[in-house]
Amino acid sequence: MILKTKKERNREKARKYIHSINGRVLRKAYDKKYWPEVKMRIYTRLGNKCASCGCKDRRILQFDHLKDNGYLQRKQLGPRSMLLYILKHPEEFQLLCANCNWIKRRIKEGRKEPEVEP
User: Fold this and answer.
1) Are the beta carbons of 55 and 49 closer than 8 angstroms?
2) pTM summary value
3) Which of 30, 40, 38 shows the shortest CA–CA distance to 61?
4) Which residues have CB under 8 Å from 45's CB, separation 6+?
């Protein structure tokens, strides 16, 4: 018979609680409060406006990687860790509105859209 230390017993209790219904409810409440605060701090650090056109509407602002390696980094870190990474390394990111972000993507791909004449 293997005796568990107090630390191991507590860790096991915590693991069971987190997976219980009460633990999930508490986790959800914590997430609702914590992650929006993190996003607000990131917006503030990155200037609260689109780096290209100056748009300040947060509903359409997106975090953009200056090195264009966003897909790989998000896949490696996951969404929550990615927000914390942006908070620690704001010099690697910029805020772009959705339109400017798509335009940047199209230019990077080498596509040129035809100009619309009035």
Assistant:
1) yes
2) 0.67
3) 40
4) 87, 90
Instruction: Please name the amino acid found at residue 42.
Output: I
pLDDT, residue 1, reads 53
Instruction: List 94's β-bridge partners, or say none.
Output: 64
Choose among 68, 32, 61: nearest CA to 46: 61
Cα gap 23→12, rounded to integer Å: 14
Six-digit token pair at 97?
């509105």
Residue type present at position 84: L
Q: What is the 3-state secondary structure (H, E, C) of the chain?
A: CCCCCHHHHHHHHHHHHHHCHHHHHHHHHHHHHHHHHHHHHHHHHCCCCCCCCCCCCCCCEEEEECCCCHHHHHHHHCHHHHHHHHHHCHHHEEEEEHHHHHHHHHHHHCCCCCCCCC
Render pLDDT for 50-106 as a digit per residue (tens, 0 to 9). 999 999 999 999 999 998 888 888 889 888 889 999 999 999 999 999 999 999 988
